[in-house]
Write a structure and sequence with these properties.
The protein is of the alpha/beta class and about 325 residues long. The protein has 9 helices and 16 strands. The longest helix is centred in the middle third of the chain and has 19 residues.
Amino acid sequence: MTLNQAVRFNEAGAPDVMYLENIEVGEPAAGQVRVRHVAVGLNYADTYFRDGTYKITLPNGMGVEASGVVDAVGEGVSNVQVGDRVTYTGFINTLGAYSTARLVDANVLIKLPEGISCETAAAMTMRGLTSAYLMRRIYDFKKGDTILLHAAAGGVGLIVSQWAKLLGLTVIGTTSSEEKAAIARAHGCDHVINYSHENVAERVRELTNGVGVNVVFDSVGKDTFMSSLDSLKRRGLLVCVGTASGPIPDFNPVLLAIKGSLFITRPALADYIADPAEKQALADEIFGHVSSGRIKIEINQRYALKDAVQAHRDLEARKTTGSSIFVI
């Protein structure tokens, strides 16, 4: 009998609330499949479940993204069969991905095309689908537009910057170190601002001849909110895609008028993959770019499930670049 394990936690808190335990997976019910994982994605969103930012019922499992092979299917499942390589991501409906195997609803699965390994899929399904909706659904980009991309050396940042270059955009990235700046430049950033010792908004104005950028993608939150607004051109768009430094402060919407009739949105991946057809279209587009080599996925950190606590510590200390995965 195969020994299965999963990372779980009983209370919200620091990384050390997580622990690894032996589990029984069982047989899939109607509409479910059993997936034997090959690799599991590590995402910053995982820390929001763990620290209580996202409210969930506890105790619970950890992680929302993984890839592997279907080894059993329940009654009524027709979209996948035993032996298919699959990947998935989601929100509460896929919580529990930090595991060697699990039961999951068949309707969340995406079949992997040839040329995409399970490790690559675990490193890019959430980040890739996020990048896809950011580049294809949020704003009608035109060649020559300029974007400001915070955390440019992160997993989403590296994909977005490469995709932006395919669309003919100018990319200004921000990083916290020269090492990360070099990584960002290698993946398409035209200019990189080191926010550790440069004023982001002032530097953006210099680089854009005082005009500002069309769109800011801000995954940092509290620490960058005002500089993001100050980096936008008149009627520009701030896309708040994360809060790594904490939630953005409360503000009076008149601030948007004062700073140039700005727009702001806080999208969630779940709303862009809720429709199966749209999810498949976004998946086909990002998988196509990766399969062809137009976009490269950088897996720069690999962990074992037993090292989940350290993985979260590294992630929150901003020690990681590119994508991170757990290898089963």
